[in-house]
Amino acid sequence: xxxxxxxxxxxxxxxxxxxxxxxxxxxxxxxxxxxxxxxxxxxxxxxxxxxxxxxxxxxxxxxxxxxxxxxxxxxxxxxxxxxxxxxxxxxxxxxxxxxxxxxxxxxxxxxxxxxxxxxxxxxxxxxxxxxxxxxxxxxxxxxxxxxxxxxxxxxxxxxxxxxxxxxxxxxxxxxxxxxxxxxxxxxxxxxxxxxxxxxxxxxxxxxxxxxxxxxxxxxxxxxxxxxxxxxxxxxxxxxxxxxxxxxxxxxxxxxxxxxxxxxxxxx
Length: 267
Known about the structure:
About 35% of the residues lie in helices and about 20% in strands. By secondary structure, the chain is of the alpha/beta class. A 7-stranded parallel β-sheet has the order 8-7-6-11-9-12-10, sandwiched between helices. Helix 6 (about 130-140) runs parallel beside helix 11.
């Protein structure tokens, strides 16, 4: 069972995993160097532990102890308990969901491991906003997709904000990073997937037509600004659009992923 440790000093060195959570660049380097990530909120903390991630520690206000008692009973990690005001001093923001956990990252699986048995896959190129990455994971998980592949420069799906927006979908959805950006899509085609890129090219067809009758599909989404790179756009097997009202050419990538996942799942 977790050891309950009451803390009254926000400068306590044992709280290092939880400091300055609003500083994105600092957190990215700290979490990568120390092999950790943070989960925020009772539901997400629970899903992280149930997903098999080993806790390093917990940080919460006293009122959350009872609600997470069963989770705390599964680990020997320390649980730091402090007032919400002190927790805000440590983290840099009001932890309105009350509970945080620091957990160990696991080595990423190979592409072959992630694709084993998969029929519907999301492939993300240079989507750099953590909120969008989290929302895409959530849509994919909800609508029956089997895995997510990320290009090397995509945002970290284990960043706190991405996990929170995705409601912990990253803990159950198989995912990994692609080792090779240039030939990523031809490699998927060689594995038996039809790669369908969401793009505004003149030869793009409606998403319903592009995915109709396909067995294994890799749905390809590009960055928030310029969309897919020319290399990925051209090397995809098919190009697709989401038909919409005249004068509006696109949706936010997270919204587009939800629509495309819905259509693809029902192909």
